[in-house]
Amino acid sequence: MAAGVGYREVFRVAEFRAMWLAELQSVAGDQLARVALSVLVFNDTGSAALTGLTYALTFVPSLLGGIFLTGLADRFPRRELIFAVDVLRGCLILLVALPVMPFWSLCVLVGIVSLLQPVFKSAQLAVLPDVLGKERFATGMAIRSITIQSAQMAGFAGGGLLIALFNPYVVLALDALTFFGSAILIRIRLTARPAADRAAFEHTGVRRSWRASAGESWGLLFADRGMRTLVLMLWLMALVAVYEGMAAPYAAVFGGGSVVVGLILAADPFGSVVGAFLFSKFVPEEKRSGLLGPLSIASAVPVAVCLLRPGLAVSIVMFVLAGAFGTVVVMQTTTSMTMMLPDERRGQAIGMSNSGLTTATGVSPLFAGLLADRTDAVNAVGWFGLVGTVAAVLLALAWQRVPTPATE
Question: Both 32 and 5 in a single domain?
Fold first, then answer.
């Protein structure tokens, strides 16, 4: 295979299979829960604003969790931490699934579940290099990208179907079961490893305070030009993907209804699956990091095309392309960053970088919406694409000046 390590070789690793299956069912369950919560809250309150608030609570607290809690992935054994977080999230979602739960309690519980998500993700990404080794890690990340996007699409589609067949409470209970299933897989199939921070303490005899550890991890993300450029490329991809948050007003400009909104929302994950597959299958691993600059530009240019008001069909094709290239950039920047970071700070640093990604994902539709009020959604998305293209060009030039060893 041109890209080196194939999918089959990665799936031969029993620990990876367990982690992959655990994450796959958790992601699908999360999407089921988002659909169920939206339907449940709207049916109970009749308020679009409260429905939007509940949906936002499945994302926004992740920012706080990424900043303040991801250090746990370095201070505690990662297998035990993943297990505990999954069990706790399963219990919380079971409470949400109780029909007697008042709305304010539901909001608190959903917010806590979202708060814990970065802890799970940072611990998982931090332990993945230990499971796969350097030679299999990039291919493992590609498999994760493909299956996560596929699980998200399946979860959104399946959520609507299951709610039609049963009710939102049953769907929420199914989501809880996915967390428990994930916890069991991790506990049984993942090898116990000591906490990375403990291993570093035994080696150096120095244990840093929580604040010092956070400051050091944040500093690592901006320690040199290479790491700094990777972080900014990662965050830029969230800003460029503004069309997801603007799907409804974008479709309305051209007279499109809910079906068109669904097609716009599906464009990004569809492109993501295709892009991750082609990149991991046909691009040699030693050339991947060198392509980050052109790929960043390629992810922004299709969004800038919206300034030409190309119509819905062409717009959706552009969003598929943007999703394909953008996911490859996210996948490769995360891979490069993970391999460059020291193990004892990997969990917290990756968690913080993902917090920036979450923040950018939430902020971009907000500012695009303000801009759309002055023009319209199509122009707003196009301007984001144009600014993103300029930023991508600058980052690509910066990446070219990074010494070769830092990009590998």
Answer: yes
Amino acid at 80: E
Q: How many domains does the chain fold into?
A: 2
Residue 79 contacts residue 127 (beta carbons within 8 Å): yes
d(CA 231, CA 252): 34
At 301-324, the pLDDT tens digits run 999 999 999 999 999 999 999 999
Choose among 85, 139, 91: nearest CA to 115: 85
405 has pLDDT over 50: no
Q: In degrees rounded to 5, what are phi and psi of residue 97?
A: -75, -5
| Cα distance between residue 176 and residue 3, in whole Å | 38
Residues 126-135 have pLDDT tens digits of: 999 999 998 8
**Domain shared by 174 and 256, yes or no:** no
Report the CATH number at residue 91. 1.20.1250.20
Residue that is last in its domain, among 186, 207, 228: 207
Question: Structure pTM?
Answer: 0.80
The pLDDT tens digits for 6-36 are 889 999 999 999 999 998 888 887 777 777 8
Tell me: do 259 and 307 sit in the same domain: yes
Which residues in 377-404 are b (16+ Cβ under 10 Å) and which e?
Answer: bbbbbbbbbbbbbebbeebbebbeebee
Same domain, 151 and 237: no
Domain boundary among 190, 207, 224: 207
Could you give the CA distance from residue 264 to residue 251 in angstroms, rounded to a whole number?
Answer: 8
The DSSP symbol for 47 reads: -
